[in-house]
Amino acid sequence: MNCRQAKKLIPLDADKEIKEDLHFILQAHLAECESCSDAYSAYKSSIDGLERSLHTITDGITASDSFTTAVAGEAAAIDARYRAKYRFISGFASRIFDSFNRSRWLAAFASIAIIIAVTIVIGNAATSVLNTTPVASTKVNPGRFIVFTVHPTTDGKIVAGVDSRGYCQITRSKEEALR
Amino acid sequence: MHDDDMLVYACQSGDIDAFEQLVRKYQDRTVRVLYLLLSDADDAQDAAQETFIRAFRCIKSFKHNSSFGTWLHRVAINTARNWARNNKRGQEVPSQIEGVTPANQLKSDDLLVARERSLEVKYALSRLPQYYREAIVLRHYDDLSYEEIALVQQVPVGTVRSRLAKARTLLKQYLTEDIDRSNM
User: Fold this and answer.
1) Within 10 A of A26 (CB to CB), how many other CB atoms are there?
2) Average pLDDT of the residues in B100-112
3) What does the DSSP 8-state code read for residue B64?
4) For tag attachment on chain A, is the N or C end more exposed, with fewer CB atoms within 10 Å?
5) Structure confidence at residue A177 (pLDDT)
6) For B146, which residue in chain A has the nearest alpha carbon?
7) Any idea what the Cα angle at residue A47 is, between residues A11 and B180, rounded to 5°?
8) Cα angle at B112 between B110 and B113, to 5 degrees?
9) How far apart are CA A12 and CA B36, in angstroms?
């Protein structure tokens, strides 16, 4: 280790932030280099002085007598507001739940009606897609890709989809699809 | 399990008494750190209260990835930054050091010399840019490791190392200027 390297490591060593092997190499260098050893001592002494000064600056600085009470009081107020808000939300939810509890038949009927309505909407949408007459179809093997090439002059849109049996359906004129 | 962790868990489940215990344990340290960062005793008290209130508000988000003390430092540092931004007093550098006797009039009394020196350091510290001041205070007052400082300042360890090096150089420069001025 040369003096330049040693001087770079001095602050890290003084802060105990140096790797153990480098610490021993540095110490060995300091033992035989008076200039670096002096630099190390000067650095340590200035840092010790700085730390002493920082502690002297804060001598007598403490939290005020009412500090804990003030903070705990404010925390309790925040907690109370939070609990009140939570009670309001949970109270609102439980009121709805209770009203359902009082008229179970009505709730059951409403649930069934919602399920039926959703099924009809989804079913209609699915039927309109699946019932489209395919003009061309091909079998899609799992894990295989199909590349569709559309002629640049083609206008209109090609709707392609894979049905539940794994068939790819192209809903457009046969000639265009086969081109 | 660490005492703090148990108190934090209790606090996270809404135990105000547990929070009060944490406040009692960390209040003086927090006030002192904020005093060093803001250079004003009243600001330090107010900012420390705000720190604990902020900590209480977001204690549920504390994931125990670091110690509670380190996490609280982060809250304190952020509060100090906001404080310095909103209350310009924290950033003002006094034009002269109050109560500092020129060096040539210093008595040989060690305590007095230490006190004078500490005022010079306080003045030099207040002249440092915010991030450098934080690094110096966390390392040389609170004895945090580089890794902990990196967690508090939310920067890589390498940045902490370079900030500390730059901060020490600036401090040394400011202190030398003060000595030169008082000798003039």
Assistant:
1) 22
2) 47
3) S
4) C
5) 43
6) A17
7) 115
8) 60
9) 24
Residue A51 Cα, gap to closest chain B Cα (Å): 5
The alpha-carbon gap from A34 to the nearest alpha carbon of chain B, in Å, equals 23
Q: Between chains, do B27 and A49 touch, taking CB under 8 Å as contact?
A: no
Give the angle A167-A172-A177 at the CA atoms, nearest 5°: 75
* ipTM beyond cut 0.85: no
The DSSP symbol for A156 reads: S
Q: Check if B36 contacts A (Cβ < 8 Å).
A: yes
pLDDT higher than 90, residue B89:
no
Contact B118/A at CB under 8 A:
yes
Residue B30 pLDDT: 92
Across chain A, the runs of DSSP E, i.e. the strands, are: 136-139, 159-162, 167-171
For the stretch B57-83, pLDDT in tens is 888 888 887 888 889 999 999 999 888
Cross-strand pairs, B138: none
Ranges of chain A whose pLDDT falls below 50: 152-154, 174, 176-179
Contact: B121, A79; criterion CB under 8 Å: no
